[in-house]
Task: structure prediction
Amino acid sequence: MTQDIFLLIEHIQGQVSDISYIMAAAARELAKHEGGNVIGILFGSSSEGLKDSLAVDKVIYCDHPALTEFTSDAYKRTLISLLEEYSPRAILFGNTTLGAGVSSSLSSHLKFPVINSCIKVSDSGSIISQICGGKIMVECQLGDKTTVITVNPGGYKPEEGQSGSSPETINFSAPDLENLKVQLTQYIEPEAGDVDISQEKILIAIGRGIQTEDNIELADELAKLLGGAVCASRPVIDQGWLSSSRLVGKSGKKVKPDLYLCLGISGATEHIEAITDSKTIIAVNSDPDAPIFDIAQYGIEVDLFDFIDPLLEQIENAKND
Amino acid sequence: MTEIVVIARLVPDLVEELEIAPNGTALDLAWLRLIINEFDNHAIEQAIILKERSGATVTIISPEAEGVEDMLFTTAAKGADRLIKLTGVGEEKPTNLSMAQTLAEMIKEINPDLVLNGVQAHDDITGDLAPQLADLLDMPYVGYISGVSLGDGKATAFKEYPGGVLAEIEIALPAVLGIQSSEEPPRYVAISKVRQMMNTASIEDRDAGVLETEGGVIIDRMYLPEAADRAEMLEGDEEEVASKLTAILQDLGLL
Amino acid sequence: MPEHVEYWGIPHEWGSPNILVYSVMFLAAAILIFRFFLRARLWWKVGRPEPRWNKLHVRLYNLIKYSIVQTRVLRQKYPGIMHIALAWSFFIFFLGTALATINTHFYTFLSGTVFSLYKLTLDIFTVVFLLGAILAIYRRYVTKPDRLTYKPQFTWTLVLLTVIVLGGITTEALRLAVEQPTNAVWSPAGYLISQAFRSTGASEAALTNWHLGIWLVHLLTAAVTLITLPVGSLLHVLTGPLNIFFAEIDRPVGELSSTPTDKEGQPVYVSKLNELTWKQILNGDACTECGRCQDVCPAFGAGLPLNPKDFILGIREIFEDAKSSSKGLSFDQSLLENHKLSREVLWSCTTCAACITECPVLVEHMDTIVELRRHLVIEGMIDSELQDALTNLGRYGNSFGQSPRKRAKWTQEIDPPVKDATREPVEYLWFVGDYASYNPALAEMTAKTAKVFNHAGLDFGVMHKGENHAGNDVRRVGEEGLFEMLVEKNLSALQRCQYQSIITTDPHTYNTLLNEYPFSEPQTILHYSELLAQLIKEGKLRFTNPLNYKVTYHDPCYLGRYNGIYDAPRFVIKATGCELAEMPRNKDLALCCGAGGGRIWMEEGKIQERPSESRIREAMELDGIQHFIVACPKDITMYQDAVKTTGYESDLIVKDLIELVIEAL
Result:
């Protein structure tokens, strides 16, 4: 086993996900303690260029048509084959729709210890994870064998994992990828929402606390008044009250507005991880213990419905002055 | 007849305050209220939807925990056919690999076409259960599923990607799927129906065998996060707070 | 000596007129009874059994009160007087005919003064009827209030009855015109008309012929009325009294019946016609289509799909369709497919009981609505907001989804600390309720209430996390199983406590504790307005600062209409020195705020005007009104919202009774 830290680079439809850079930053921290190199794993088809700007020392690149886009079977087989040749200290995956599944199946197959939801590496080189919706922190040590770690965003910024130079490539040949049990047929884009919330500067976000579809009008009015757009957390989208193009969260969009004003959102981790790049977060929630208040700059603990009308009035007045 | 197995687990209810056990490396069970893992609830719903759509036998397997009988009877009231409770689980949470090994034995006996499980559970630190189970069963695994239909020897599922994008995936059966959300929100079951089930349905007890609680990873400690820099709370009644907020928006140059 | 003469002016050549009259009338009556029997027996054949034969003396009393005296009809002046005029007249006419028959065949007594009074009474009521008919014609064809049904058969009925009565007075007048007896003035109206006939100069023979003709018409019209009775708007003459006789007398309004079971002991969740009881089907047939229920229904007034009148007529419609369709005798038609009984209709009901308070024939709308809701709940046909509330209630014992341990959080700041009734004995066990405990704004009010109790030196305590939602609205939503579970939990918590009385600030909690909880021992349960009134009377609460506000009081449904508590809150208000002005719809006419029946947990739906907004507007009509006083936590939130949405925020302040008390201390 070497002291190297590996990480699986995630890319979707030709774009490298932010989590890859975040993992690079985490890996660099870990590598400092373990004393090895940071090596990225890149699978794809004519995708070598995606390695650029990742702050890793080297990239192991495997090219195969069946690896063009992520599928769990192809990636799993290739990783198993790769880990027969390499034996790193630890291997990082994103706790995402790509990384979460393949990391666990790998750990089971190779009997590697696995740690979930790592937020960051501590000063002493241990792994700090966050579970139970962010309410509990866990500190773990790496196991005796290659340790699989899944990484959540929040501990490092993507910028910390970027670099100007392009890392060296080591080529790796794919194993037999015939008769794959999982095939990707097509991507389905969400209904062309009139608005791309990831580009909006002012967002009014609504959560479970909005209670009924009719109340969304209130958020609409506020958004109109401030020149922003309405977005929502999962419970609202699941009800079908807004199109999925308005979903902010792990399975939705990541947003980076100047103002994120959230109404009736409790602050589940899947939602929080998508709004950490907002400049100012203001949360309105009648529950003073709601986790959203841990990351908001300003908090308001009132009944949302009593508050909206005075707010609309005040903003209107302020605008007219 | 399609055989579907659903693994459903209870997890700590985050409504209550969570405490750390005296040993410092686990949750204090005394104050813990358990509820069904929301994703597992969706998995159950998806299984019932598939049964209603094209016929299937649905088996639910749950490790024993406080309140698991109520949960199993509720699934029976929704339409589950067979209820299995794993006994001998013990107070300490087993590793997901160990749990997966026990489940794999049981599931091989049932020989299902489809195994559904919630994509994640918020108290898991030792990896996700479903992919490990899939690996031990030598079945393919796809996670973050929000819709499934069954065909001849294969399933077509929708996998959720960031940005609201979906991927249409074809999976060879038998397979394990990690459910993110069912096609319809989980249905409501009236308490009287659940109580009726307590008289008509029965739960099979199966011994879980030896379960590992150590997974090759050393947990140094579990702790509550430091009271992070909390938000600056704006005080006052609705009018006052509205005017304070308006002032802040003005200062930020947003008006 | 003047005496009753039988069949004056009717020729006896073709045999005794008796034969004609009795054969026609018996035939008509036989047809009536036969047709009615065909319909009535189906209620019992189609509907589930339900025993309603007990306490005959109470049932007879009700029959007299509601069918004869017609107290419900008299709740509204114009239609009340109009209907009394029409109905009582006919009671008198039947009585008169019966007496005449007895007089002829059994015992002669209609002579002399008795006879004169007899004539006078009949004559007066003839005029009364005709005045009533004029009122009715004016109402039905000129005023045309929305709540009535405007169908030809109602005109037909009015015409028939008026023709009968006109026939009666005319034959009388014609006889008087020919006979000119000395006692003619005892029939004043008949006498006046007879003078008019005389003035036409017609011969006695002509008058007698006219008399015969009109007499025959009178006889035939009466026969036709009887024959068409079961299919016309007069059906209520038979079904109304039956419905009144068989009305529910064992349960108070505030107690719902539990889920019925079939012969095998399996629960019955009503969704089909033949799952209703015979009495529920009779409701449909007894409806007079008066629409009073419609007028007072808060859901209907708000523009929601529910119309209580249509709901009941919908049952009739389905019953009639089932009788006449080729599927016919299976009668298992689904009720929910009829748009008058659809899901949206069922979920609109706030269970305010205004409909059953107004109905002149004691139709029981609410029981059927709740039973149908039970079916919807079992099938999972509920909206997501309600589902969340019920799931939270099942899991945490409150609809907010918050920890049971936070229920008594509001007690933290109170000094001296509020006792834990599960740990030490108390005199008054205060069952606080969900909204008053968990809603932050209302929790403040609860804390204030505790301070008042302390000030009055009350020995009281709360159950902390032992208390669960009392279940009143859970039951009304149709989740009977959850209701039973909450009752079990609350009873077991209460059994661990020692107390003299239970007090509550919430009328919904009050209702179910008082009427539905199966306590093993009799309990004293008080609403806090009753307690305050008591404390004031005992001198334990003294007001040093009399308030001079002009206020109005809104009677909460579950306190007022359901349980008859109108005086205690008014007493408290007046004791604080306020001037009380009553809204037009006060006491049992009070308009529901719209939150009951679980509606506070549901999607509002397409509403035109909220009942709470209508109520605020009603209050604003009172000159110089300053405060709107409520005595229920849900009312506070509903009306505070309503003053904002109606724009009267600065004009009318919504206050709980306890706030007046605090100010006046």
